[in-house]
Amino acid sequence: MESTNDFRSRLLKEDLFYRNAEKYAEKTKHKNNIIIWGCSSGGQLVFDFCKKYGFASNVKYYADNNKEKWRMKLNGLLVLSPEEVEKKVQENPDTYIIIASQRLDEIKNQLFSLGVEESAIDVEGFGLAWGYMPFKKGSPFELIYSHIDDYEKVYSILVDDHSRTAYLGILNYKISLDNNYLRRIASPAEEQYFDREIVKLCDNEVICDCGSYNGDTLQKFVSLTKGKYKKYIAIEADQEIYKELIRNVNTHGYKNVQAHNVACWNEKTVLKFKSAQSEGQIAETGELTVFADTLDNILEGEEGLSFIKMDIEGAEGMALKGASSVIMRNKPILAICIYHRLEDFYKLPLMMKDFDRSYKLFIRHYNTLFPVETVCYAIPKERLV
Known about the structure:
It is built from 16 helices and 17 strands. By secondary structure, the protein is α/β, with parallel strands linked by helices. The model has no long low-confidence stretch (mean pLDDT 94).
C-alpha cells in the first residue's frame, strides 16, 4: 500500500519538458513532406509546434475526413481529402503524416488502408504538442514546484492507491512529456464519469451533465441505468451542438431529459465563446456570444439532485463557484474534469473538498496517449461502492 507522505520522493525532480520536446523536433525536422491530418485545434497545435522549432515550412498540406474542409486553406496550406493523401503518398514515398486527432487508432488504420507505411505515420507529435504548446511561459515543472504544497495536499487526501498513482503519473507526464506515464495509469475510456470502481448508479438518479455535447454521455448513462433514472439535465453552451443534442434526444426517444442552451459560470452574464468547430470554450477572443448562468440559478428548486458531471473546457472552476449552494444542499456525486488547466489539478479537488469535508476524493485518467480525460470524483460516504 502506498504511503500518503511519499509524494515528493516520487515526483520527478528534473525538468524534462523542453528536452523531450527538442528531441522530438530534432527527429522530425528532417521530414521534408509533412501532412498534418486534422484541421481542428489539434492540427493548429501541431503546426504551431513545428513553427516553434523552425520546420513549419516542411508542412505541405493538411488532411481531414470532413468533406466540408476539403480544398479549404489553413495556415496557407490546402486541406486534402483521404483520396488526395493516397495520391500524394504514391507520388512521393517520403511523405510523412502527423495525426492530429484523438481518433489516433482509427485514422492510423485508415492510413494503412490507403497504402501508407507505418514508418510514415506519426502518432507521437500531437500528444507532445498538446502538452507543450499551452505553456508559452515557464514550464509545468516550474508551476508544479511553485505550488507543491497544494499538489501534495491533494495527494494526501485522495482515498485510494489507484488515485495517488494516477495523480503522480499525470504530474510526472506534465514534467517530462513521457507518454509511458499515461500508459501505466489509464483506466478504460468507457468507464469515464461512471467508473465502476467508484460509482454505483441508482434508479432514482437526478443527474446534471455540464458540457453534454451531442448527448454522448447521456447515451452511456441511459445504457448503464437501462433507462431507470429520474431526470437527466443536459447543459450545452454551443448553439449548433445543442441542436444536435436535441435531435439525438428526439431520435433515440430518451425520456425525462431537460436541456439548456447555456454556459455554466459563476454569475448570470453574456460571454465570448469559441465554437466547437475551433475549440468549444469560453474565451475573450471568441467569435460567438453565449448566455451564461450559475447552476444555483439553473437548478433552483430542483429536488433530489444526485450527480453533477462537468467537462466544460477549463470553465469548471467558475462553474463550481456558481454551484456552491446546490452542491452543499444536495451533496451530489461530483465527476469533474481537471485536465484543462494544470492549476486545476490542485484548485478543483481542494474546492470540491471544501464544499463538504466528508466528500471522499478519487482521481482517474482515461486516455493512454494524451494528457486529457482526467476526472476528479467527490463521493458522499453513503454513495461509496
